[in-house]
């Protein structure tokens, strides 16, 4: 509890002033498999593009895009149809990535920071200057979390994780214990 409170305060002190004191809206998902990352992860929806999550998926694949930045053609695009893609920040805009995943039939995209060791900074994802739009939801994930998910899948030789999204954490009494252990410091 104390740890959690500390973390929350830390987030506010360190991150909010830079963004006009805006406290982020969070969206949670749980990895169901592989078992070693069976945690509840915290993501933040894009600020001004993409759709809202109005469907709850009890089980859906989270497929790491190949190449990870998903700025153009994907070699594993067929796996993304009707599933959710995990992509990496960098190379092109957040919106471009979202559109690439949408074009492959993805239901949503989770974009992880490319700063692998950064476990505290939620980037606010905003429109680029292109005036294009995207219909599927786009979520931002901490670099550390994205890295740990990818690494686990690589270690197991798995093409995707199975997740549940969104998760209502207020209905889970043990929620705090289900966050990734590397979240705390
Ligand atoms: C995380 O990223 C933010 C923004 O780039 C930076 O201010 C902060 O120092 C980084 N933290 C770590 C632990 O790298
Ligand atoms: C989340 O769970 C709480 C507690 O069970 C419940 O009161 C609330 O309505 C739920 N929220 C949603 C969006 O389902």
Structure description:
With 185 residues, the protein is α/β, with parallel strands linked by helices. The chain has a single domain, classed as Glucose Oxidase, domain 1 (3-Layer(bba) Sandwich), CATH 3.50.30.30. It is built from three helices and seven strands; from the N terminus they run αββββαββαβ. The protein has a seven-stranded mixed barrel with strand order 1-2-6-5-4-3-7. The chain binds 2-acetamido-2-deoxy-beta-D-glucopyranose (2 copies). The site of one 2-acetamido-2-deoxy-beta-D-glucopyranose (NAG) has 3 residues, from loops. One 2-acetamido-2-deoxy-beta-D-glucopyranose (NAG) binds next to loops.
Overall mean pLDDT stands at: 87
Distance between the termini: 14 Å
| Molecular shape | globular
Strand content: 15-25%
What small molecules are bound in this structure? 2-acetamido-2-deoxy-beta-D-glucopyranose
Helix share bin:
10-25%
H/E series = HEEEEHEEHE
Helix count equals 3
Main sheet record: 7 strands, mixed, barrel
Strand order of the largest sheet: 1-2-6-5-4-3-7
At the fold tier of CATH, the topology name is Glucose Oxidase, domain 1
Q: Can you name the CATH architecture?
A: 3-Layer(bba) Sandwich
Based on CA atoms alone, the radius of gyration comes out at 16 Å
Q: What's the domain count?
A: 1
**β-strand number:** 7
- Class computed from helices, strands and strand pairing: alpha/beta
């Amino acid at each position: 509890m104390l740890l959690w409170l500390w973390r929350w305060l830390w987030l506010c002190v360190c991150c909010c002033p830079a963004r006009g004191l805006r406290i982020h809206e969070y969206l949670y998902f749980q990895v169901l498999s592989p078992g070693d990352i069976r945690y509840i992860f915290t993501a933040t929806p894009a600020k001004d593009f993409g759709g809202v999550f109005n469907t709850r998926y009890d089980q859906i694949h989270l497929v790491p895009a190949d190449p990870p930045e998903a700025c153009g053609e994907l070699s594993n695009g067929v796996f993304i149809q009707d599933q959710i893609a995990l992509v990496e920040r960098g190379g092109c805009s957040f919106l471009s990535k979202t559109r690439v995943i949408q074009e492959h039939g993805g239901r949503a995209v989770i974009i992880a920071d490319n700063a692998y060791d950064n476990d505290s900074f939620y980037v606010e994802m905003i429109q680029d200057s292109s005036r294009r739009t995207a219909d599927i939801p786009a979520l931002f994930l901490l670099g550390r979390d994205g890295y740990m998910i990818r690494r686990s899948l690589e270690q197991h030789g798995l093409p995707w994780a199975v997740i549940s999204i969104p998760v209502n954490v207020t209905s889970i009494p043990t929620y705090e214990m289900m966050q990734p252990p590397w979240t705390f410091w």
